[in-house]
């Protein structure tokens, strides 16, 4: 059985950024993820917004860590080579009562020292967003808001953590935890690991993980809240310039309309609380998608829904206290809960990681810093972003970069092979899609999917029937048909 200083349960954007931050110290760290890849829970299906931070009350962890995390994204994106653009956001008021809400958000934002925050009139809002509904009378403008790709942040943080010595165990579903005075033993079906400290970053399952050690002393409950989305083709690019929100309500920030970091348009989510048994319920439903469409249409006119290329749903963990839970357990020594990380969790992630690392440092004052820590992730080669001369040089160096696999996103064989062989590399069709984007375009993998499967099988030295869409049960090919041997 392997022994570690710290075991982190959950390899979403929170768990992976914590792992990376802990590698600043001389610690042996392992990430435990029940899925077959990192970023397959809340992280893979959300709005991808780095919020400015005016929404959460200034006295909450959500509010404070959102603002701190937002300010860290410029450096984080450069170090990890992930997309990040500060495009600004607008919260739209459509009547006097909503204008009063904007005033409240502005005052909260001032208490949090959010830069550049201001209320603008309807005329200026329409200049900034020509497709706004004529009902828009004012808007709260936050220039510090941005967009990124959450799964790319998680993958990159995990890769950089592993480059600096962290370990990753996929398919490791924690079923039980045994505790002694000195350590925890975390047990999966076929493997166990021992750790002095446990960090619980298990998303919608965080309450269940804590229950394994706290029992009847458990102090929080997580409700899965589902949100559904439309994703429009890149042909819709330019329809919206900023992240556009309605005024927030009791169930969250509301249905937004925004460009994505890669040039699409995202619309959603709704907010639907589910039962505790529905922590895997990521299916879309016609009634809730209709709600998303109607809500968006009340905010902006002429939304090109005919350019929709996919719909999807994600789950976030809703805590009972409506704030992040980031604390060393009062009931269980050496156990740190990082739970209830709903929106703005992505925005706050780098600041959450620092807070957790500081907690560990305060409780383990003898740990030393790691002088060899390198925050820089090896840059990805993106042929579509190169000049003609740079492309020619790269293809001359490695001809696989001259073999186009995904025509929609202009992704080459060389980029896919690179995505497979990095630390925390992709092993599934969706895993490669998250890392290098084949299948993310208009045809959604209809053309490139079979070729990506062939490359995965070749590079992983397995049969193509072993390649999965996402998890173990998502079989794509089962065998060959007839005498001709066609799959």
- Poorly predicted regions are none
Average pLDDT for all residues: 95
Structural class estimated from helices and strands: alpha+beta
State the major sheet.
Answer: 8 strands, mixed
Would you give an account of this structure?
There is one protein chain. With 487 residues, the protein is an alpha+beta fold. The protein is built from twelve helices and 22 strands. It has three domains: 1-86 and 146-221 and 320-379, FAD/NAD(P)-binding domain; 87-145 and 223-315, D-Amino Acid Oxidase, subunit A, domain 2 (D-Amino Acid Oxidase, Chain A, domain 2, 2-Layer Sandwich); 383-466, Arc Repressor Mutant, subunit A (Orthogonal Bundle). Strands 1, 2, 9, 10, 11, 12, 19 and 20 form an eight-stranded mixed β-sheet that branches. Strands 13, 15, 16, 17 and 18 form a five-stranded antiparallel β-sheet that branches. A hairpin with a 4-residue loop joins strand 21 and strand 22 (411-412). The longest helix is centred in the N-terminal third of the chain and has 20 residues, at 61-80. The chain starts with a strand and ends in a 27-residue tail after the last helix.
């Amino acid at each position: 059985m392997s022994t570690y200083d710290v075991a982190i349960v959950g390899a979403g954007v929170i768990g992976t950024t914590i792992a990376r931050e802990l590698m600043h110290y001389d610690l042996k760290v392992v990430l435990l993820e029940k899925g077959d890849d990192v970023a397959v829970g809340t992280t893979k299906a959300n709005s991808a917004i780095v919020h400015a931070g005016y929404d959460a009350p200034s006295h909450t962890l959500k509010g404070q860590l959102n603002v701190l995390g937002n300010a860290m994204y410029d450096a984080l994106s450069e170090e990890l080579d992930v997309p990040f653009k500060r495009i600004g956001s607008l919260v739209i008021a459509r009547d006097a009562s909503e204008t009063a809400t904007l005033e409240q958000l502005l005052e909260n934002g001032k208490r949090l020292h959010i830069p550049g925050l201001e209320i603008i009139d309807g005329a200026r809002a329409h200049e900034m967003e020509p497709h706004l509904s004529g009902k828009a009378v004012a808007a709260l403008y936050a220039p510090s808001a941005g967009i990124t790709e959450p799964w790319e942040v998680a993958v990159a943080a995990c890769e950089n953590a592993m480059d600096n010595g962290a370990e990753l165990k996929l398919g490791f579903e924690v079923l039980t935890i045994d505790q002694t005075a000195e350590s925890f033993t975390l047990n999966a079906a076929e493997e166990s690991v021992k750790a002095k400290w446990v960090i619980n970053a298990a998303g919608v399952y965080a309450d269940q993980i804590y229950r394994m050690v706290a029992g009847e002393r458990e102090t929080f409950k997580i409700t899965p809240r589902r949100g559904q989305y439309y994703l429009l083709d890149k042909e819709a690019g330019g329809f919206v310039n900023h992240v556009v929100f309605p005024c927030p309500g009791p169930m969250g920030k509301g249905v937004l309309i925004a460009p994505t970091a890669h040039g699409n348009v995202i619309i959603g989510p709704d907010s639907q609380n589910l039962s505790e048994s529905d922590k895997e319920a990521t299916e879309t439903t016609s009634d809730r998608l209709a709600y998303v469409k109607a809500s968006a249409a009340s905010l902006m006119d002429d939304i090109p829904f005919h350019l929709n290329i996919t719909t999807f749903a994600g789950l976030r963990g809703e805590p009972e206290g409506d704030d992040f839970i980031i604390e060393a357990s009062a009931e269980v020594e050496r156990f740190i809960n990082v739970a209830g990380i709903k929106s703005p969790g992505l925005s706050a992630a780098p600041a959450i990681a620092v807070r957790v690392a500081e907690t560990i440092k305060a409780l383990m004052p003898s740990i030393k810093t790691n002088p060899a820590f390198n925050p820089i992730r090896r840059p990805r080669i993106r042929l579509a972003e190169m000049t003609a001369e740079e492309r020619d040089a790269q293809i001359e160096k490695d001809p696989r970069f001259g073999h186009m696999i995904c025509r929609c996103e202009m992704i080459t064989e060389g980029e896919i092979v690179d995505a497979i062989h990095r630390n925390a590399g992709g092993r599934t069709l969706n895993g490669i899609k998250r890392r290098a984007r084949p299948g993310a375009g208009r045809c959604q993998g209809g053309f490139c999917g079979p070729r990506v499967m062939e490359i995965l099988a070749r590079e992983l030295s397995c049969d193509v029937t072993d390649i999965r869409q996402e998890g173990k049960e998502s079989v794509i090919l089962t065998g060959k048909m007839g005498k001709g041997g066609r799959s």
